[in-house]
Structures are given as C-alpha cells and as structure tokens.
C-alpha cells in the first residue's frame, strides 16, 4: 500500500501554516519534483509531500471557515462536508471511515453531501497509489486507487487518507495500531481506527486551527463589506 500525496499548488489553501500552528512549508515546495514511486511499505515520505498534506488540511479548514463566517448562526460543532459521488466503488468504505472518525473525535464531524462539499473522494488507477491532494482552487480530494485497495485493507486505506483531511501527517514507521502508519506494517495490518494520540491531535487541530481560520475568514468578509 502506498498512501503518498502528489504535490499540489500549496497556495490554494490561502491560510498561514504558522497561524494554524502547523509549521512552515519548505521554501520552493510548490516547484519541487515528486519523490520517485518506490514501494509504499518502505517509503519514508518527503518534505514536499508533508507540505502538501498540510496544504490539503488548510484548504478544508478554509472552506469550512468561510461557510461558517458567512452563516454564523449554524450549529456549534464544526462540520466538514464530503462528496463521495465520484467514488461509488468505495461508498461503503467511505461511509465507514466517516463513522470511525465521528466516533473517535469530538471537535469535528464528517457529513456526506453533494452541495457545497469541502472536499471529495475520487477513484481510479494510479501507480502512486491512494493519496489526498488540493485541487488548486481552495478545495481538496482523496483519490482511492483500485489495486492498492485490493492488496491492503480498503477501510484502513480510506480512513488513513481521511486522516489527512483532518490534519494528520504520515508516519510510515509506526505500528499497526497507529492509523497514519499506513502500509508501513504491511498488508496484514487491518486496523482502521486512530489511536489515542491521533484522536487527541485531530481534536486539538480542529479546536485551535479552526478558530484561527474562522477569524481570518470573518476579517475577510468584513473587509469585503459582506
């Protein structure tokens, strides 16, 4: 299994990495070439892909915050809407992934929808495997590769990639009990649940990071006179 992310236009997120407490992207990351394909199980990741992971998370944060700033009367919980219509083969795994995350964290909730989605799922064949990416227009998508999902536990693959949506980085050297270790433990690992540290990190990101993104979105609305 290879859960690597192709480098996208990092500026699409439109938010400051430092403001969200996520660190700074490497200089020139947007122009850096992708790492060679290689084997997922032994792949150690790259600074470019780590930056792209952060950019994807920021794109989703920005999308959610803009909608909340425009309609502050919404529910208190932070809801992230996903569109799974372009990945019908994995409808069950996507729904299960959302259920796993919704039962694991409290500061953010994943909800299926086709209108005004904050990110989407897609499916197909790609030698690089499954990945999460920004689309260059302030939104993101998760791509699910057919072959990879036949070799590795499909629900684990999907829940892992959704972890990037929520702000978690890869840690391929981790144990099977760590969701973001991805394919590092090998095909026999079927754990699709985040561990306590991963759950805590997501809640922290969506409490602190979202507050920063919302403040930025509200100031932008005020400046535009809306």
UniProtKB/TrEMBL annotation:
Binding site for Ca(2+): 153, 155
Family: Belongs to the peptidase M7 family.
Organism name: Actinospica acidiphila
Reaction(s) this enzyme catalyzes, per UniProt: Hydrolyzes proteins with a preference for Tyr or Phe in the P1' position. Has no action on amino-acid p-nitroanilides
Matches recorded under SUPFAM superfamilies: Metalloproteases ('zincins'), catalytic domain (SSF55486)
Active site: 161
Disulfide-bonded cysteines: 176-189
Record-listed Zn(2+) binding positions: 160, 164, 170
UniProt keyword Metal-binding present: yes
Keywords: Calcium, Hydrolase, Metal-binding, Metalloprotease, Protease, Signal, Zinc
Protein's recorded name: Extracellular small neutral protease
Gene: snpA
